[in-house]
Amino acid sequence: MIRIFIHGLESDNKGIKSIFFREHYPDMIIPHFVGELSERMKRLEEVLSGHTNIRLVGSSFGGLMASIFTMENEPRVDRLILLAPAINMLELSDYRLREISIPVLIYHGTKDDVIPLKAVEPIAKKYFRNLTFNKVEDDHFLRNTFPNIDWKKHLGSGLHI
C-alpha cells in the first residue's frame, strides 16, 4: 500500500499535517506542490506513476487534487481521505468528473470560513457513492480534529504513537 499526503494551496510539505505524517508514517509520500492546478496534477501523476493500492489524504486544495486523481485513476486508489477539501472547485475545473465508488471519508469544520461546508457537502454527495461525511466543530485547518482522527483505522498500521 502507498500512502500520500497532498497539502493545500497556501501550504507546503513542511506544515503541521506533513510533520505529523512524517513522524507517524515515515514511509508516507509527502511531496511539495507549486503552481496552477494543471502543474500540480502533472506532478502528482509523476509521483504516483506505476503505483496501485493508493491511500490518498488531501487537505483543502490537496483534497481537490486527490479527488481529481481518483476520478481519473479509481482502479489504482484504495481509499480517499479529505480534510476540508476544496471540492467546491471540481465543477470549475477542466477535468472530466466521474462518480467514485471507493470509500471516501471527509472531515469538514462547521466553522470553516475558507471553504464553506454548505458548498462542499452537495458536491461530495453528488460524486462520492461510498461517502462518510464528518461535520466537526472546527475551523478550516481542523486544528482540534486532525490529531484525534483514527489514522490507524484509515491508513493502516504504521503509527508509532
* Quaternary organisation: single chain
Q: Could you list the spans in which at least 5 consecutive residues all have pLDDT below 50?
A: none
**Structural class assignment:** alpha/beta
Q: Count up the helices.
A: 5
Give the domain tally.
Answer: 1
CATH fold description: Rossmann fold
Largest sheet, spatial ordering of strands: 1-2-3-4-5
Average pLDDT works out at 94
What order do the helices and strands follow? EHHEHEEHEH
**Which CATH C-level class is it?**
Alpha Beta
Structural write-up:
The chain is an alpha/beta fold. The chain has a single domain (2-153), classed as Rossmann fold, CATH 3.40.50.1820. 31% of the residues lie in helices and 23% in strands. It is built from five helices and five strands; from the N terminus they run βααβαββαβα. Strands 1-2-3-4-5 form a five-stranded parallel sheet, covered by helices on one side. Helix 4 links the parallel strand 4 and strand 5 (128-136). It is globular, with a radius of gyration of 14 Å. The model has no long low-confidence stretch (mean pLDDT 94).
In short:
The chain is an alpha/beta fold and 161 residues long. It is built from five helices and five strands, in the order βααβαββαβα.
Provide tags for this entry.
23% strand; 5 helices; Rossmann fold; 161 residues; globular; single chain; alpha/beta
Give the SSE layout:
Layout: E1 2-6, H1 16-24, H2 37-48, E2 54-59, H3 61-73, E3 77-83, E4 100-109, H4 117-127, E5 128-136, H5 151-155
Parallel strand pairs: 1-2, 2-3, 3-4, 4-5
